[in-house]
């Protein structure tokens, strides 16, 4: 039994299908990424998957239970951090964590959790006074305090600077180490590539690919690019005939060879064999950004947001 199973999920607003036949399964203990541009249908899918929105069609199971018919069972098993959290502004960190703890039959000690998430110093600070990073850590605390089997984290690191974001990644990996299944919604490629065991790439309400990060990158054709300057005439066909080579082009005086396999070794050996001196050798390995572009036809959004430590909620 998977942690989450979604089959043929559909949801429309005003006649527009924003989730248009989504199938996916999240396995126990994995960090499963839901990746896509703004408006791709990620939040709607995730909220339908855990019973926070009612789908128009399709089947959803959370640990084998129907999130609408067995609402209480699902609520006790799932901790959710949503993009828009409406928390009581004048309550303090510890008051909020204790309040959320009271919703669950079993749960973690609020004091210990607050310390573990580095919120000890602000435990008595009101929610409205927290920095962006502190607020995000509080939202993780609220998602975890019920000792969930599944944590749903939606755009957790949006609005954080890169060091705060990296700190958050450590917390998410820590959850997986404790056996919690994590469903992570993001539009940051680097975050998805680094953290996720598997990723569903969303575009216009559909899953266009579902695979490991390496598997997705592999779909771009194995994913390497070698460029260099040749200082003697070079017959392009010498390169195109090499194993793994998919394309050879010339850009700004540089020869660019792309493809898969052991591209660098093959190209270097061929240049030696044919006595072509070359300089400015550079290699570039494909990233999830390349895979995303190839799969959706869209450039990924910003890799990193600069410096803002305002509340990203
Ligand atoms: N309650 C609603 N009423 C009308 N339209 C909605 C509603 N909720 C979402 N939408 C629309 O559905 C589409 C998908 O929204 P959704 O929030 O699922 O996207 P997303 O991929 O999570 O985007 P983002 O990264 O911006 O959060 C968007 O065009 C959004 O405007």
UniProtKB/TrEMBL annotation:
Top-rank taxon: Bacteria
GO molecular function, one term: ATP binding
Nucleotide-binding among keywords: yes
Principal subcellular localization: membrane
Membrane topology: Peripheral membrane protein
CDD domains from the UniProt entry: ABC_DR_subfamily_A
Subcellular compartments: Cell membrane
ABC transporter domain location: 4-229
SUPFAM superfamilies, per the entry: P-loop containing nucleoside triphosphate hydrolases
Membrane-spanning ranges: none
Any one Pfam family match given in the protein's UniProt record, by short name: ABC_tran
Residue ranges that the Swiss-Prot or TrEMBL entry lists as coiled coil: none
UniProtKB keywords: Antibiotic resistance, ATP-binding, Nucleotide-binding, Transport
Name of this chain's protein: ABC-2 type transport system ATP-binding protein
Organism: Nocardiopsis composta
